[in-house]
UniProtKB/TrEMBL annotation:
SUPFAM superfamilies: Composite domain of metallo-dependent hydrolases, Metallo-dependent hydrolases. This is Amidohydrolase family protein. InterPro entries: Amidohydro-rel, Metal-dep_hydrolase_composite, Metal_Hydrolase, Metallo-dep_Hydrolase, OTAase-like. Residues 50-404 form the Amidohydrolase-related domain. It comes from Amycolatopsis minnesotensis. Pfam families: Amidohydro_1. PANTHER family: ALPHA-D-RIBOSE 1-METHYLPHOSPHONATE 5-TRIPHOSPHATE DIPHOSPHATASE.
């Protein structure tokens, strides 16, 4: 830990302000000051590099790091699943992401192993298993398999993709179980999905009253509910029930976007997974039907992003990558930069995501008193946002004051 200074970098602090040439002093894991102190400490020369806050991915699936279909059909051992999860965690850090929100797939043991430093990886906030309606998005058992056997796919302490509920009482019990296992927030699936076996994107799932049960249970623990939601009706149901965040939001319309803004509900679009499924469905361990389901989603999600911006919705950033190919997580920033500006994409992946995750004032910007999470990039990703896509361009990654990657 100790004290060190970074000099010579162009500092983009994550607030949206223009880059400045200023030294950064780190002490005991936190930003001590902007500006170089004369006191002792190692001095890192970062001339020609660009410093940004450590990136935050608000929608990851570390527990889905193996080929999807083989994992769900018990053709991969627990040892291999664990190896894939931990490899993805390390690759996430190497791509410049120092914090992630896992929106379903890992069990509490993974979070603990990373937090203890036994495995390289980012700071992880997790919902544990996703909460799903019986037969809805998140259930990947065979048609003949009784729903009650789905939990046998879980590997306690390692991966637990989803829990099935048939009514409000079952949902209440399941979310309490998720919290018992260490969840720090809840995620519900309230519409069908792209990677689904038993539903369509147009399906709505869980009633307003059922969703409100999860909101009530989360509020009792001082936390919140986010929802997987593609169609507008499902999004509106969730907002009416009191959720705090919407994932994907593909068919969000202007009216519902206005309601989200009024009630302070955030949106986390996920473009990288759409590109992944359009161009390398097999690489994720999925069949061509997944590609067919994603056709048109990119364009509609871009329209939803525009509607949300116009309404004043807080908009974060998430990649939603699945399967083994999760090493180019920064592609999400490059894709967003094509729809907004590179600075807006960076702010979404830092300051705004920290706010959505409840970590504002801890991470997300480079400012005195905050955790020393930052990345030194080769070149200027505000001028060429494709630099975010290649982990090799993240030449130095610092997490909580510790150098966790150094290619200098």
């Amino acid at each position: 830990m100790g004290r060190f200074q970074v000099v010579g970098a162009a500092v983009v602090d994550g607030s949206g302000r223009d880059p400045v040439d200023v030294g950064v002093t780190v002490e005991d894991g936190r930003i001590a000051q902007l500006g170089v102190a004369s006191a002792h400490g190692e001095r890192l020369d970062a001339g020609g590099l660009t410093m940004t806050p450590g990136l935050i991915d608000a929608h990851v699936h570390l527990g889905l790091s193996s080929p999807i279909q083989p994992q769900f059909s018990f053709r991969i051992s627990a040892a291999e699943i664990a190896a894939d999860i931990f490899a993805t965690a390390g690759a996430t850090l190497d791509a410049g992401f120092t914090t992630v929100r896992d929106t379903g797939g890992i069990d509490g043991g993974v979070v603990t192993a990373i937090a203890k430093g036994k495995v390289r990886g980012p700071r992880v906030l997790s919902c544990g298993p996703v909460q799903c309606q019986i037969g809805g998005h998140g259930y990947y058992g065979a048609d003949w398999e009784p729903t009650e056997l789905w939990s046998s796919h879980h590997v306690p302490g390692l991966c637990a993709l989803s829990m099935m509920s048939g009514n409000a009482d079952e949902l209440r019990g399941n979310v309490r179980e998720a919290f018992r296992r260490g969840a720090s927030f809840l995620k519900l699936c309230v519409t069908g999905g792209v990677v689904s076996a038993h539903d369509r994107l147009t399906d709505t799932q869980f009633t307003v009253e059922e969703i409100a049960v999860a909101v009530q249970e989360a509020a009792a623990r001082g936390t919140y509910v986010t929802v997987h939601a593609h169609n507008n009706e499902g999004i509106r149901n969730a907002v009416e029930a009191g959720v705090r965040c919407v994932e994907h939001g593909t068919d969000l319309d202007e009216s519902t976007a206005t309601l989200m803004a009024t009630r302070g509900v955030a949106l986390v679009p996920t473009f990288a997974v759409v590109e992944q499924l359009l161009h390398d469905t097999a690489g994720a361990g999925l069949g061509e039907s997944a590609r067919d389901r994603v056709l048109g989603v990119r364009e509609r999600m871009a329209g939803a992003l525009a509607a949300a911006k116009e309404a004043g919705v807080r908009i974060g950033l998430g990649s939603d990558l699945i399967g083994p190919a999760q090493d180019r997580r920064g592609e999400e920033l490059a894709l967003r930069a094509d729809l907004e500006t590179p600075m807006e994409a960076l702010v979404a992946a830092t300051k705004t995501n920290a706010e959505i995750l409840g970590l504002s004032g801890q991470v997300g910007v480079i400012a005195p008193g905050l955790q020393a999470d930052f990345v030194l990039w080769k070149g200027n990703p505000l001028e060429d946002p494709k630099l975010f896509s290649d982990p090799a361009n993240a030449v130095l990654v610092v997490q909580a004051g510790r150098v966790v990657k150094d290619l200098r």
